[in-house]
Amino acid sequence: MAKPKRGVPKKVRVPTIQDVARLAKVAPATVSNVLNDSRPVAAIRKERVLAAVQALGYRPNALAASLRRKETRTIGIVVPDLTNPFFGALVHRIEELAAESDYQILLVSSNEDPKQEAARIRTLLDRRIDGLIVAPARDEVEAVSHPIGALPPTVLVDRGFGLAGFDTIAADNVEAGHRGCQHLLELGHRDIALIAMDPKLANFADRIAGYRKALAEAGAGRRARVVTGGLDVESCRTAIERELRRPDRPTAIFAASYVATLGAIKAIRAVGLDLPGDVSLLGIDDADWMEALHPYISAVAQPVEQMATEAWRLLNQRLAGGTAKSARIRLPCTLHVRESTRAVR
Amino acid sequence: MAKPKRGVPKKVRVPTIQDVARLAKVAPATVSNVLNDSRPVAAIRKERVLAAVQALGYRPNALAASLRRKETRTIGIVVPDLTNPFFGALVHRIEELAAESDYQILLVSSNEDPKQEAARIRTLLDRRIDGLIVAPARDEVEAVSHPIGALPPTVLVDRGFGLAGFDTIAADNVEAGHRGCQHLLELGHRDIALIAMDPKLANFADRIAGYRKALAEAGAGRRARVVTGGLDVESCRTAIERELRRPDRPTAIFAASYVATLGAIKAIRAVGLDLPGDVSLLGIDDADWMEALHPYISAVAQPVEQMATEAWRLLNQRLAGGTAKSARIRLPCTLHVRESTRAVR
DNA sequence: TGCAGCAATTAAATCGATTTCCAAAGGCGG
DNA sequence: CCGCCTTTGGAAATCGATTTAATTGCTGCA
């Protein structure tokens, strides 16, 4: 293998359309026409161009093309936290779909902070992205929409459901809360504590509403116990631990998110209770490991893949010029009954 | 709230530098000079420009700027699988660091496929990214480097260690295998099966080497049992299951990756063995849930955060014109002894 | 008072494509 | 055989910034 041993990384001038044109003895316009076949070009010339392209290893500068075309074939994705497997899966799937249609992904993370979110979105807009998929940090996307004015076609996923002017997609969170609580009720639980990271977020509000509804239907309306955890595992753990140490501790914990579920498991351990012997645990959001270690964790799974697919579909519709009024899509969750939920003694 | 009710999403013409110049009654060049303070501008004019910028809500078109400056402040990241928490954490951290320096991330996933990887990298290059961070699908990055020719400053993370011409970063995998195996040996295990997804990948080869070394040091050199799993959880599970069903089944499983660990847990369950009563399990790669459910899973943790930090540091050095010879950084892993590894009966 | 010298502005070139529009050439009917 | 129409090719405009180079307007010194 040749050892370059150069000092400064030799700036290789990448070939431009001019170079190709020169080599093929045609006009730049012709090269462009061949490559995009935007207009017919005589076979002889076409060949010469293709040969030149080959020879030089020419690839069009996407920046220049985008500038002229006013289209970047790039979409922005904003998530609160890539570390959360839910968003990991979401981004993964969207990237996959986008790539199939020759789009690329500018990824930014808002770290659950609306300020950062707004700032990052602005930088995305400077890049003239064609579209935007956001899992907002908060539901009032004033941060998203207000200071910015015109956004490109935008789809809101998971949070911010129903915000005017956006296509929005979310799991049917009311149903998730309802179905989950019902499951626990059917097992005979009456003291069910629901752990929400932040009850002001619509997702949690909905899940709480569903939970309350199920309780009410069972005639246990006043037994609702909603605990506010926090945005991270640790704060959820302490909140739940406190709850579990009370004399009237719940017999079941309904953890309304991935982070809360993790916190709940740790809290139950910390207090020294048996899962599911002493307390049952039902999570919202599924993860690969929940079916690995005993007790397998029961969970209401959000349809991440579907959410991603729908998000991409809606965005595509807009990109294609579709002008239907804002879509609002609720996707059903599925309850996975596993081992962490057990009939009350 | 006003209801636009427009048919086609009214194309708002975004203001350009020309518009600002016109409004401020100065030349476009002056606007540019103010905004980048590339040259001194009289206070009166500067104010006028700033006011105009405010009034119009002007933001420079990053495409145009990039085209001219030949710098996009964008870096590409390529990972095999975002669903894997290791890569999730890696990307998360890099994005964070990049944002701090006002860089943005074009994210692509190679799906563990070198062909896709090469294709996706090419599209990244078309976008004229300033730098590239890759966790390659294979170690021979001919896919990465060959057909493409000149790459921008590139850092290889996790895989492809030591490839000529790249800064490379990886965990000290030999040591990880060595330390892990040693731990199992200390517990009295002699029949330790190591599960690698693909022994041809250098990472796994290294981990295997470390494992063999530890065995040899213990005078158990010929007891090495290396099982080839596969790229996904399922195939790992079946491979391990087969191993566990043999009459001379191992007393300990050393799962050399996140995916293998998950597969191992499932396999142990499937065969009906007790973890860690009948078999011990040690994983490589840590995850939040490993310290949640019993038995807590012992694991050799790769220093993801550090790897991300170093990757960004090295890339920055190159971006800043640093011209040192390719760095090769090995980062130490840490053994987390938890509950899944137990002294052999 | 005249001119060198400096600082602040701006006109124009540039980045690298796409697209518009004009010109030349070839085909065809009258 | 001539003029009109259809192709095809290429020159030039364009996208929206940055940067270079030229210009303008002062200041200050002789």
TrEMBL record, chains A, B:
Q: GO: which molecular function terms?
A: DNA binding
Q: Which residues form the HTH lacI-type domain?
A: 15-69
Q: Which domain of life is it from?
A: Bacteria
UniProt keyword Transcription, yes or no = yes
Q: Which PROSITE patterns match?
A: HTH_LACI_2
Which of UniProt's keywords are assigned here? DNA-binding, Repressor, Transcription, Transcription regulation
What SUPFAM superfamilies does the record tag this protein with?
lambda repressor-like DNA-binding domains, Periplasmic binding protein-like I
A Pfam family that the UniProt record links to this protein: LacI
Q: Which PANTHER family match?
A: HTH-TYPE TRANSCRIPTIONAL REPRESSOR PURR-RELATED, LACI-RELATED TRANSCRIPTIONAL REPRESSOR
Q: What is this protein called?
A: LacI family DNA-binding transcriptional regulator
Q: Tell me the lineage of the source organism.
A: Bacteria, Pseudomonadati, Pseudomonadota, Alphaproteobacteria, Rhodospirillales
